[in-house]
Design a protein that fits this description.
The protein is built from 14 helices and twelve strands. By secondary structure, the protein is an alpha/beta fold. It has two domains: 117 residues, no CATH class; 220 residues, Spore Coat Polysaccharide Biosynthesis Protein SpsA, Chain A (Alpha-Beta Complex).
């Protein structure tokens, strides 16, 4: 009896995932560019871009903003760059460049840059945009229309990550997949305060909501600043919304396993609240969900359960692959990707235990 219950666990996990009403595997929360929104009046929006050594991409990001509509104001906060980021940004119309001050103790770099820029925002709506995010023509108009239609004060879109290598295709769609499992969009977008999530690369928010939520000083040391900001805004009584978009394009190349590892490891243990107990729980869950089905395939009496679990697992990943126009056969490698992500999470924890909370943009944030 005990063996049968144990063998049933991965089936319950994966079939249950497919059946839960909030459908975390779904891609139904999405916004794509509206070709008719390219001439939209955007004079009520100021774009706030923190930028540190982004000379290779800032031009493309700003060019993408130029195609969004009329009246858009842009503020680039040059966060102590050592390259030509500021000079490139200053060459674009309707773009102000603010020279950032040295990073104070207790602040994350991106949040300090945003804090310096927010006082210059005079419009009722602010677009927080990463320096490596390019918006396709008509995207901002479509996002603004959704914000108004749905009566939201805070809307954000998860960027389409570039997929140029085997490692990109294996791991980056899975990154979005796992994010949606951890922060179900349907629950986050509801009035429930159980989940609050955002994608920091592209956030359109009422300026008043930012001020009432205490941004950015109230979350100055947060490494997962987007979800923390969404939590603050939601706690202040505002409505948030998070979705996917193929027209919010990340310009940052990954390409190698190491670069993806560095991106994940800088915040994976933070997601677990630096809890060793939670890390062990996650490890056991991954072993049950991804490892046990393969062991069951070798069992004469329980191989069917293993097969059902594997099929349900891959079915849960297919919507993500379809959304990003990828071959469905990549679902076969989902367990391999899961092992790598678990390893990255352990790597993140080991960094923390050695005194490093995170490393990013030539900065190291210690645990002290």
């Amino acid at each position: 009896m005990v063996e049968w219950v144990a063998a049933s666990l991965p089936v319950l996990m994966w079939v249950g995932l497919l059946l839960v009403p909030w459908r975390p595997w779904s891609t139904r929360e999405r916004i794509e560019a509206d070709p008719n929104a390219g001439s939209a009046d955007l004079s009520e929006i100021t774009v706030l871009i923190p930028a540190r050594n982004e000379a290779d991409v800032i031009g493309l990001t700003l060019a993408g903003l130029q195609s969004q509509g009329s009246g858009l104001q842009v503020i680039v906060v040059d966060d102590q760059s050592s390259d030509e980021t500021a000079e490139i940004a200053a060459s674009f119309p309707n773009t102000r460049v603010i020279r950032g001050q040295p990073l104070p103790e207790g602040w994350a770099g991106k949040l300090w840059a945003l804090e310096q820029g927010k006082s210059q925002v005079k419009t009722p709506i602010t677009l927080l945009l990463d320096a490596d995010i390019q918006l396709q023509p008509g995207l901002l108009g479509a996002l603004l229309a959704h914000k108004r239609r749905d009566n939201r004060q805070f809307v954000s879109l998860m960027a389409d990550l570039r997929r140029t290598s085997f490692w990109d295709r294996l791991l980056l769609p899975a990154f979005v997949y796992y994010f949606k499992l951890l922060y179900p969009f349907s629950i986050s977008n509801s009035s429930s305060r159980l989940v609050a999530a955002a994608a920091g690369g592209c956030i359109l928010v009422d300026t008043e909501a930012l001020q009432r939520a205490g941004a950015f000083a109230s979350l100055r040391n947060a490494l997962i600043d987007d979800c923390t900001l969404a939590r603050q805004v939601k706690n202040a009584g505002y409505r948030t919304w998070l979705g996917l978009s193929r027209d919010v394009v990340s310009l940052r190349p990954y390409g190698t396993l190491r670069s993806i590892h560095d991106m994940v490891a800088r915040s994976a243990f933070t997601q677990l609240g630096y809890s060793t107990a939670l890390l062990l729980v996650v490890t056991v869950l991954f072993a049950l969900a991804y490892g046990l089905p393969f062991l069951l395939l070798a069992s004469a009496s329980a191989w069917r359960l293993g097969l059902i679990a594997l099929v349900a697992m891959m079915l849960s990943y297919l919507p993500m692959l379809r959304y990003y126009h990828m071959r469905l056969t990549w679902a076969l490698l989902l367990p391999f990707g899961a092992v790598l992500y678990l390893g990255m999470t352990w790597s993140s924890a080991i960094r923390y235990w050695r005194g490093v909370r995170s490393r990013w943009k030539d900065r190291t944030y210690s645990t002290h």
